[in-house]
Amino acid sequence: MLLEKIANRNVVTIPENATMELAAKTMRDQHVGCVVVVQEKGLRKIPMGMITDRDIVVSTSAFGIAPNTVYVRDVMSATLVTARKNDSFNHVLMLMREHGVKRIPIVDSEGALMGIVSTHELMSVLADEFNVLLKVTERQHQVESDRRPRLG
């Protein structure tokens, strides 16, 4: 299954010159645990990094630093892991495992942000696949029963 089919298209973004306070308020207002830091190039948004709710805690709150004095560009992940919209489910799963991340922005062929995939979307796909597998087993039992009725 291609990522463009399972990616969440409603990505919450923030410019790289925003403060951590704005990032926190944006996460709260949008009910998300991360924002993708972007640089706008015309109508395209190019992902530059990511800020999570955990980043806010460990980079500012834990040190008593006011979040309105720190910029997201100074805290965001140094190397952003992205995947292409035509990459496979398995590829993004391997990227997550290799880099120890739970969310990966999905980009088009020009590097513009088009979605995000998290462990939530991956687990949802897997749950659907397991449900199909369960139905196969149930159907197999029904076919067997129809083909060979009980004796006696």
Question: What's a quick, concise take on this entry?
Answer:
The chain is α/β, with parallel strands linked by helices and 152 residues long. It is 43% helix and 22% strand. The strands form two sheets. Strands 1-2-3 form a three-stranded mixed β-sheet. It has a three-stranded mixed β-sheet with strand order 4-5-6.
Element order: H for helix, E for strand: HEHEEHHEHEEH
Model regions low in confidence, pLDDT < 50 over at least 5 residues:
none
CATH superfamily: CBS-domain
CATH architecture: Roll
Proportion of helical residues: 40-55%
Number of strands: 6
Q: Helix- and strand-based class? A: alpha/beta
Number of domains: 1
The level 1 CATH classification is Alpha Beta
Strand order of the largest sheet: 1-2-3
Name its key features.
6 helices; 6 strands; alpha/beta; three-stranded mixed β-sheet; elongated; 22% strand; CBS-domain; single chain; 152 residues
